[in-house]
């Protein structure tokens, strides 16, 4: 799933098929799938950046020796 979140266009194509069945219109399904996939990708990127920032705060500065 993480790899799909890094590729929003591929995720949108996969999501468009079930949404096509739900909406009955492929144009609306692909637009909704693109919107959903880019939101999920953006959420994943923000989560990764926040985790990296938290890890940087927890590490002691590299210049200090004990």
Descriptive report:
This protein has helices at 2-5, 8-23, 26-58. The protein has one domain. The protein is rod-shaped and about 55 Å long. The protein has 3 helices and no strands. The model has no long low-confidence stretch (mean pLDDT 86). The longest helix is centred in the middle third of the chain and has 33 residues, at 26-58. By secondary structure, the protein is mostly helical. The termini are far apart.
Q: How would you sum up this structure in a few lines?
A:
The protein is mainly α and 66 residues long.
Keyphrases for this structure?
single chain; about 70 residues; mainly alpha; about 80% helix; rod-shaped
Topology:
Layout: H1 2-5, H2 8-23, H3 26-58
The number of domains: 1
Taking all Cα atoms into account, the compactness measure Rg is 18 Å
Mean pLDDT: 86
Provide the low-confidence segments as ranges: none
Number of helices: 3
Strand content: under 5%
What level of helicity do the residues show? over 70%
Question: How many strands in all?
Answer: 0
Which structural class do the helices and strands define? mainly alpha
What is the N-to-C succession of helices and strands? HHH
Distance between the termini: 42 Å
Question: What is the overall silhouette?
Answer: rod-shaped
What profile does the largest beta sheet have? none
């Amino acid at each position: 799933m993480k790899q799909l979140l890094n590729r929003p266009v591929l995720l949108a194509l996969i999501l468009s098929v079930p949404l096509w069945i739900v909406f009955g219109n492929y144009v609306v399904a692909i637009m909704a799938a693109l919107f959903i996939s880019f939101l999920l990708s953006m959420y994943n990127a923000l989560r990764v950046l926040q985790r990296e920032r938290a890890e940087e705060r927890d590490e002691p500065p590299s210049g200090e020796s004990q």
